[in-house]
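Before relying on records like the one below, remember that each one covers exactly one chain. Contacts with other chains, cofactors or solvent are not represented anywhere in the record.
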Amino acid sequence: MGTSPNSPAAIRAWHILATLYLACLSWMLLTPDPWILLGDTGDRLAEQVERTLADHFQHAAAFALLAILAQLALRDTRAGRFPIRTAMLLAYASTTEAAQSLIPNRHFEWSDLAANLAGLAVGMLLGRLLPGSAEPPGG
């Protein structure tokens, strides 16, 4: 017998997972060298990624997952209402990209911001299709 997707235990698990993911994503977006965990291989990989569209796909995928986790974790809260959740995600995507201009070895890119926003849009659409993710009345 499975646990309901709307049970308190399931929602608590989504809260924890979303918070951990947000912390990891923030570190990746705001550290001067997120590839440092891979050592010298990370430097070579970072150079290759920067020369291709892979960087933009990474941004889009990361923000799509964030939007899905936000839908699941916040669905029974006031912050989970679509306009509020959308505003929070847009603010996070914009702020983290803008903050990169203040971090050594990082820089703001309009194309990264566009990829962040595209990922949010895809994730928000996919998140609404998940079982148990229906908006509460008035949301």
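The helical segments are 8-30, 39-50, 54-74, 82-99, 110-129.
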